[in-house]
Specification:
homodimer; alpha/beta
């Protein structure tokens, strides 16, 4: 048998690069928001742009250098467009950061203090990827329950997943701008966005 | 800021395509082995070839159509070569199968009864990816403890991960040719293969 393909390609939608140029990540706290909230609002805006353009699931993420404040990478969910269930926003952000830095371990890269901002709490896969990524901190917007409430499946993480990450040196902050993140998810749901769920139960 | 890269590329080592042509997956039970054992021995042979060539971590996987017995995809660990911690053997096999079938959900593809054979029990990330993949069955060679014994880190899966997959319609078989899988891992360790572990503790 000849293998049909030998490369997986996961690609950001074409508009994302232009959007990042047009909307630079703020380098300081703004509008009475903390630095974390300022960054999370930016990530939620990116997810909202994805919703408005219909280019994929309502999820976005960004990796920020916690020392310099520089944007290291962004990700949006491209599961449908890339025909690949691995392509959650957090996975895209982690993979782009790693390949952009030529390092599978961001902790050993030129950005050793990377922080992952995700518009929603990571699913079981993205949770499992965090310890291998070299990311040192996770900040979440919406909770898993919020994504589940509009029909997405989040998988089964260990009950003590936040402690498990903490023991690996990865600090977790939840509920950062959760209200804004939930509003974005609900706009997606009310616009009749596709709630794709892979696996044995098919898409809904 | 201009994004440094916008595509993640995960690529099999060049030798894998030739190896698969030269070593077709057996289409029936062989040498007093069951069908599962025959397939797992083949996956362990693929991992052993990876060890012999020094092209990456000692992990291989294959997705087989459980109805026809056809090989759908293979994966080997290309974390180091691809500068990407997502590139575990199971992730590569799942992603290649999905993109090869143009479907993020193998259960809805031309191969709806896909079985994933992995030379080692999946880590927390690969476990989390399984429900999204559309794979219907997982067969493992070495146990997580065996990979940990030679220095790899497997992450934290839920304690009841096998039941959690079963409840999603994904049957799990463990310890298939475990002895042979462990021997392969030990050959890697004794050849002083790199035990890379990403994350906050750096590589060991």
């Amino acid at each position: 048998m000849v293998l049909p393909i030998r490369r997986i390609i996961l690609e950001l939608p074409a508009w994302v690069g232009d959007w990042v140029v047009a909307h630079p990540l703020p380098q300081a706290a703004t509008d009475r928001l903390s630095v974390d909230q300022t960054r999370m609002r930016w990530v939620i805006d990116l997810a909202q742009e994805q919703v408005a353009r219909g280019s994929g699931g309502p999820f976005a993420a960004a990796i920020v250098d916690g020392n310099s404040g520089a944007l290291v990478s962004v990700g949006v969910n491209v599961v449908e467009a890339s025909h690949c269930a691995l392509a959650h926003a957090e996975m895209v952000a982690m993979g782009l950061a790693q390949q952009g830095e030529d390092s599978f371990n961001l902790a050993a890269s030129a950005h050793p203090n990377c922080m992952l901002y995700s518009s929603s709490e990571p699913c079981a896969m993205c949770y499992g990827a965090l310890p291998w990524s070299g990311v040192g901190r996770l900040v979440c917007g919406a909770a898993a329950a919020d994504a589940i409430a509009i029909g997405f499946d989040e998988g089964e993480k260990p009950a003590d997943w936040i402690d498990a990450l903490a023991q690996r040196g990865i600090a977790v902050t939840t509920d950062c701008c959760r209200e804004q993140a939930v509003a974005m998810l609900q706009r997606y749901a009310s616009s009749q966005g596709v709630i794709y769920n892979g696996g044995r139960y098919g898409s809904s």
